Each structure stands twice: as structure tokens, then as C-alpha cells.
Amino acid sequence: MISLLMPQQEVNDKCKVMPDYFADLNLDQVVSEMQVRNKEYDLKNLFYTYPDSERIVRFRQEVFRDIESTVMPGAFWDFSKAMRETRKQLEFWKKTGQEQQKSVCFLGVVSEYMEGLFGLFEALSGAKLVSEGLTKVRDRLSELVTDKKMMSCRKKAEQLNQQLSELRFHMTLTDSQMTIATGKKEVLYYDKLRFLFPKQFETKKEGRLYERYYLTSPFLANERLGYLETEAVSVYKKLKPEFFKEVLEFAKTYEDVISEELYELEQELQFYLSYLSYQQEMKKHGCTFCIPELTTDGAFQITEGYDIALAWKNMWVAAETVSNSVEYCEAEKFFVVTGPNQGGKTTFARSIGQIVYFAMQGLPVPAKAARLPYFNGLLTHFSAEESAESGRGKLKEELIRLGPMLKEKRKNCFVILNELFTTAATYDARIMGTRVLKHFILQDCRGIYVTHISELTQEIDGVVSLVAVADGENHKRRTFRLERRPAEGTGYAADIVERHNLTYEDIVERLNRRLSEAGQKPEETTEKSEKTGNGKAEGTETEVAEG
Q1: 485 vs 271, 420, 467, 482, CA distance in Å?
Q2: Which of 250, 252, 480, 526 is placed for a possible disulfide with 322 were both Cys, Cβ 3.0 to 4.6 Å?
Q3: Sign of the alpha-carbon dihedral angle for 530, 531, 535, 540
Q4: pLDDT tens digit sequence for 270-290
């Protein structure tokens, strides 16, 4: 069995359940967009499965290069279309009951199959292939097309299709009878309609009306032929008895000529074609992609990487997607990312996770350039809301999900931890965060930890500080860019508080307004507040600002 997803020596069972990291990294959105554009196939299982060896990654990279550059992608789209039509006609053939109709339908099935098979072989034969995958596909197709039975089948199918195209008849309907005569009538009723009502047969509509009113073959009218179709077929049979005899014999002789291995090849092709189509759409809007270099010395460097799901949304509204460059130097294991609220920290972490994922799938990544090693897996933990149904608090929900990740002790994974332990006290969150980081570093993992606990950047070997940059007056403007520098220990949340009218003054003003509406004097409330101590009110302002 030929495969385009992995070498024949490798076995990688398909995953039918969406991995946890898919939703965290918004990969589910990316695959859904590709699925919308390729509805005939189930792409999820292809993208849910994580390649379990570096050799598979390199194998796929070579295949993608060949599909994108060496061979015109159109040849693969044509092959896929022919295989889809083959399956469609095969289902129709299985449901037909009339003997002559069944045999002619089978001729159509085989003809469509041959068109796809020989068309792809011709395209691959004229290409300078580099990939092991497509080279083996070409060799297998060569075996199929040069098989004596296949060659005779193709030749016979061409002869029978030529004879079928020459069969013509027309029907004349009167009040009391229907006359079926051979040949094609000089003037068709359809042509008269088009002459009498030219506006209804404009170019953009003519094809649709043609299909609706002009029956080209009674064999395809319905799965079960009606009276008119049955009579038409009987005329055909009387006209060309030898033809129908040959068609029946053809169906019996070549009933096993269709190989299902081409269906599997067609399905695997969609892994590359769907992503290629998605990538080409983004390139039209200025997005960059590259096939990453797989390093053997642990080098990890990304130049101008970006969040592909966010870029897809932004490109439809002409919004900018900020890219970032990052590099793990020798002995560096984790980036601890701090900085302003809404400064792009989570988006940055997500973009690097996406790049690692697509790199491990053997596909181009959303970046200008990328070099990274093979990772045995992806592990992510993004902050989730409290579950009202389970009755558990947010911290417990986080620990329950984090537990299996720590117990498995998986080595050489890429790990993304986003805003862990936000509901815990700062001291507790610092202790727990330190232990989590040390655990993954001991397992030889690399990753990103997004947090507001700046102390985590100072206490662990192999941890590097990245800070989301904010500039302008009072650091209000978010640049969504990250820099290597010591953590600043502040969230710069004051502007967010101001934006949502949650400053101390705003809150007091709203309270006074409500009290006024209720008939109580605001002055009395202010005096009571002052008597109970301004420290409490100021403390409230500080808590909101620190977020």
C-alpha cells in the first residue's frame, strides 16, 4: 500500500479524537477553515495525528515541496475530482437494477477511474521528483497502467464510449401515441425554446437550463428507470445489439479493475492540498510561509513568526498581524513571558505553538524563516473558566488538567503554559510555578510560560525572561512585540481600568448617581465613606489597577 503521509516502514495510527492542544492553539479554527473549502473529505483525522518520528517529518516536507513546485497542483486536484466522481458513479451503479443500464453505468465508472489514474501518471512521469513518497506513487502507478489487463480495459472502454456517443434517437409525443425514431432531429424542442425566449437562455443561465431540460443519456436519468427511459433503452438495444452484448461482457471481465488503494492515496493528498490552498489564500494577502529546517543540534530559531488563526481573521478586515522573532540559545529551555495585560503574550505563545505543530506535521509554517529540532509531542495548558457544573474552583480545574501532564513524564516535548495559578496567592503561585518549570526542564522539554509572576524569571537555570513591550505615555500603547530583558514586575493595567471606566473616581461617581436616583443625598454617602477610612477605598483602587 502506497502512502504519502509516511514511509512504508513507519506505522502511525490515526488519531480520531481532537488533541487537547488543538483548542488551546486555535488549530481547530484553522482545520475548520480548510474543511469548509474541502467539504468532500474528513480532514480532522489527518491533522489530529502527530507524527511519531523525525523521519516522517522529513518525508512529508519532501512531498510538499514536490507538490508545490515540481508538479503542478492542478494535476492532483484533477485526480481527486476523478476519484470523487468514480465513487459517486460507483454508488449509482450499485443501486441500478436494469441490466443494460447497470452495464453502461459501469462503463462510466471505469472510464472516470481510468482518466484519473492515467492523468496522474502522465503528470508524475514528466516531473523531476525528489520526494520518496511521490517517487513510490509514480512507480506504483506505472505498475498499474502497464498491467496487461488494465491496458486492455482502457482500450476497450475507449471503443465502447465511442460507440455509445454515436447512439442517437428522438421522441415525438402526440395525444394518443409516442414515437421513438433513430437519429437526431434537425430542430430540437430545446432549440425552439431558446429561439423564442432568448433572455431566459443567457450564457450564465444556459448551462443550468441545459442540464434541467436536455436529457443527454437515459442511463443516468434515475437509479430506477421510468417508462420513458425503459422504452428508450429498448430502442438502443434494438439499434445496437452487439454494443449491449459487449458492454455486458465488459462489466463481467473488468469488475475487479478498480483498486481502492487509489482512494486512500486521494484521501492523503487532501492533507497537502487543503493546506496548500489555505496557504495560497493567505499569501495573496501578504502572509509569509517557509518550510522549516529540522536541526540535529537542538538549535531553535524563528524569524517573524505569527499567529496563523489570527492572521486569517485579520486579512479579511485589512488589519495588521504583528510578527515576532525568537531564539533559544544554548542551554536555554523555557521563556517566561511577562508584561502588560493585553500586550500579546498569549498570542505570542500560541503562534510559537502553531509553528511547532505545523513543523512537526512536515508542512510550511507561518514565519519568514524557522529552524527547530524534532519534538516528541506538544503539551499545552491554557487558563480555563471555573466549571459551574462540576462545582470545582478554577485552581482545582487547572490542577486536574495539569496532573496527567506531570505524571506522564514525557521527554523532549514542547510545552506551553498560559496564566497558571492566577487564583492562588502570589507566594503559592510562585512555588507551584517553580516546581512545574523544573519538572519539564528535567524532562528535557522546551517551552513558554506566560505569567505575571516576574520572580519565575530569576530562580531557575535554563529560564529566560521575555517581556511584552508597551510604550507611549504611561505605557498605554501595546506594541504586541516581545523583547529579551528582565521582567518589570508590573501589569500596566491602569489604562485598561480607565478604558472600562473602573477607576476609583468612576466607581464613586456611579454610586452617587445611583443613590441620587434612589432619593439619598450623595454628600451623606461621601461623608460616611470618609469616616470609615479612605484607606479601604484607595486599597480597592490599587487592587483593580494591579489586576
Answers
A1: 40, 22, 6, 9
A2: 480
A3: negative
A4: 999 999 999 999 999 999 999
In tens, the pLDDT along 215-249 reads 566 676 666 777 777 777 777 777 778 988 999 99
Strands 413-418 and 446-450, by their bridges, are parallel
Q: What residue ranges of the chain are covered by domains with CATH 3.40.50.300?
A: 285-491
Whether the CB-CB separation of 447 and 440 falls below 8 Å is answered with yes
| Helix, strand, coil share (%) of the chain residues, nearest 5 | 55, 15, 30
Of 449, 424, 493, 192, whose CA–CA distance to 346 is shortest?
449
Residue 233 in contact with residue 100, Cβ under 8 Å? yes
Q: How far apart are CA 338 and CA 308, in angstroms?
A: 22
Amino acid found at 318: A
What pTM does this model have?
Answer: 0.82
Cell numbers given for 404: 496527567
Q: How far apart are the first and last CA of the chain?
A: 58
Beta carbons within 8 Å of 217's beta carbon, 6+ residues apart: none
Q: In terms of CATH, what superfamily is 285-491?
A: P-loop containing nucleotide triphosphate hydrolases (3.40.50.300)
